[in-house]
Amino acid sequence: MLLNDFFTYQIVEKSDDKTIASIEFNKEHDIYKGHFPGLPITPGVCQVQMVQEILSDSLAKKYHLKSARDIKFLNFIDPAKVDSLQLELSLSSINDSTIAVNVLLLKNEINYLKMRSVFATE
How far apart are CA 79 and CA 102, in angstroms? Predict the structure, then answer.
């Protein structure tokens, strides 16, 4: 779990089909010491994990990534230069235990992550 250690977040806007959150990174986290020394960037797997944790936390159900049609890492996230981002989750219910989620991770109209995915409850 990365929440409250690697990153923190606050809900900015929430409706049945959309959640917008503001994310702040802990630039001192050990992950950045190894990925990569002297040139820290946020690993893609951590970005996907953040999406899962914020989705689960905001909907009060534990979700896991079931499938992803597209995951595009469009820009590096250097925590020394980009200390906060906006996460937009567009949600579509498939059934009681599965939802389709379109993800945008951005700041000032610069996209860092785009993802079309399906999450399911555990």
Answer: 24
